[in-house]
Amino acid sequence: MRVLGIDPGTAVTGYGVVDSLPGHPGRLVECGVIRTRADETLPVRLHTIHQGLRDLIAAHSPDVVAVEGMFHRANARTTATLGHARGVVLLAAAQAGLPVAEYPPAVVKKTVVDRGAAQKHQVGFMVARLLGLKEAPSPNDAADGVAVALTHLLRSAPVRRLAPVPR
Hints:
5-stranded mixed β-sheet, globular
C-alpha cells in the first residue's frame, strides 16, 4: 500500500509518501512541502496547495490519502484558515477517487512517538528511526506529513480505491 500523508497548512503543507513493507513500518518514497507566499490571497494560496497535491497524486499514485485532523486553537481565525487547507486536501483526494483517512494530531504523535504531546523534534527523530533514515525529514512539516502516512500504515486495514468525483 502506498500512502500520501498530509500535514495541512496555508503557508506550508507538509507531505510524505510511504510504501508499506512486510514486517517493517514502511519505506519513504518522497517527502517535502508545498509552500505558498504570504503576499498571496487565500484563494491563490489554496489553488497552489491544490495543484501541488494533484501533482503529487499524479506522480505517486497513492492508494490512500491520510490527513492530519483538526484541532482547536485559541484563535478561531487560524482554525478556520487551517480548515480551508484541509478542505483542499479532501477535494484533491476526492477528485482522484482516493479514500481519505483522518487522524487527530495527538493520535499521530501517540502512534509515532508513543506520546500524544510529543514535540516536533521528537516526531522527526522517531520518523527517521522507524524508517531507517540517517536523519529526520526536513523541514518539520515534511516530517509531520511522513508521520501521518506512517500512522495510517500502522493503524489501518486495507482500503479500496473509490471512483473519481466528476469535475
